[in-house]
Amino acid sequence: MAKVYYDNDADVGFLKGKTIGVIGYGNQGCAQALNLKDSGLDVIIGVRADETQLQAQSDGFDTFPIEETAQRAQVLLLLIPDEIMPDVFKSQVLPGLSQGKAICFATGYNVAFGFIEPPDGIDVVMVAPRMIGAGVRQRYQEGKGFPSFIGVHQDATGNALNTTLAIARGIGSTKSGAMLLTFAQEAELDLFTEQGFGPAFGQTLLSAIQILIDAGYPEEAVMIELILSGEFAYSMQKIAEIGFFPQMELHSHTSQYGSMTRGARFIIPQIAETMKDVLQEIRSGAFAREWDAEQKAGLPVFNQIKELRDQHPIVKWERATREAFRMD
User: Fold this and answer.
1) How far is CA 309 from CA 164, 258, 299, 315, in A?
2) Using CB atoms within 10 A as the burial measure, which of 162, 252, 262, 295 is most buried?
3) pLDDT band at 40, cuts 50/70/90?
4) Does the CA dihedral 196-197-198-203 come out positive or negative?
5) pLDDT tens readout for residues 296-320
6) Sheet strands side by side (includes 102-105)
7) What residues have CB less than 8 Å from 75, skipping those under 6 apart?
8) Distances (CA, A) of 263 to 44, 189, 273, 274
9) Radius of gyration of the chain (CA)
10) Are 220 and 326 in contact (CB under 8 A)?
11) Using CA atoms, how far apart are residues 294 and 289, in angstroms rounded to an integer?
């Protein structure tokens, strides 16, 4: 089993007296910066002159241009989108990275696939919450934890792990547990969830909706039954809380019998083989290279698929159902 660290393994005081620079003030940047500040640390924000800068200032932070933040801070949290990160790192962050500083990523993506090559002489670490930004903030305020994956890519000072754990505790993650992985493992797991499991589940759901509507059931009834009532989402939450099979005990015997006896019919080798192919594309770097080329080309495929997606009948079915059940 991979090593998991908890509150008693981490000392947020290791970062006391250091300036923590958070680059970006979006969902994760805002949440992590506020949690670190509430943990008693000195936090500044590196951000463009836009509405996020105004929000950071309203939340009580001193804000600076990214270049200046990189110069001022001893520890930097790079919390901006993957696709713009390499250019921002090279042009605005790298010049301020002097010997002995630390830079923390919230995903291993750019380092693992070679889009960012940090210089020697600095600590390169990762704290990757398995929680959206709003949840990072909410669970901290509630005194609860949330899991994170952490990693040390480069330990120039001999204290990289201490820095990593202090950040993880400062944002509230070690209350639940922070698991040590490589940057590549974190990135590959994240991408597989998005490209392997997510699409397989999505296509299954869309197929189920289409089959029922084609069979003559009212569109609104199908949408309520499968998605919009929130029953399925509640079941997923219970899986997270008590486990996959224990959650089944919350359902009727009829539901359990039908699920267990029919489940074997959906063990389809093609699904597993397709998932393995997707994982291989991720691990080999083929997807990262493809996505990089797509961005450089101006996102033609991305935009075309989004346009087609927005024309799917489910958009109309959802709208009609929300109106019928007064969900808007």
Assistant:
1) 40, 33, 15, 9
2) 162
3) very high
4) positive
5) 999 999 999 999 999 999 999 999 9
6) 4-5, 178-180, 148-154, 123-129, 102-105, 75-78, 19-23, 42-46, 62-64
7) 15, 18, 19, 20, 21, 101, 102, 103, 104, 163, 167
8) 52, 26, 19, 19
9) 23
10) no
11) 9
Residue 26 in tokens: 């979006």
- Look at residue 190 and tell me whether its pLDDT is greater than 80: yes
Nearest in space to 167 (alpha carbons), one of 3, 2, 4, 13:
13
pTM for the structure as a whole? 0.92
> Measured between alpha carbons, how far is 10 from 159 in angstroms, rounded to an integer?
12
Tokens (6 digits) for 191:
């991408």
Chain region(s) in the chain for CATH 3.40.50.720: 4-181
Give the model's pLDDT for residue 326. 84
Structure-token pair, residue 157: 């000072």
Residue 126, token pair as written in the block: 């990762």
37: nearest Cα among 65, 68, 15, 53? 15
Closest CA to 184 of 94, 115, 93: 115
Average pLDDT over all residues of the chain: 95
Phi, psi of 301 (to 5 degrees): -70, -45
How many Å apart are CA 23 and CA 17, to the nearest integer?
19
Given the DSSP bridges, would you call strands 75-78 and 62-64 parallel, antiparallel or unpaired?
unpaired
User: What does each C-alpha distance from 284 to 34, 184, 272, 281, 306 come to in angstroms?
Assistant: 37, 11, 18, 5, 26
User: H/E element holding 149?
Assistant: strand 148-154
Q: Which CATH superfamily is domain 4-181 in?
A: NAD(P)-binding Rossmann-like Domain (3.40.50.720)
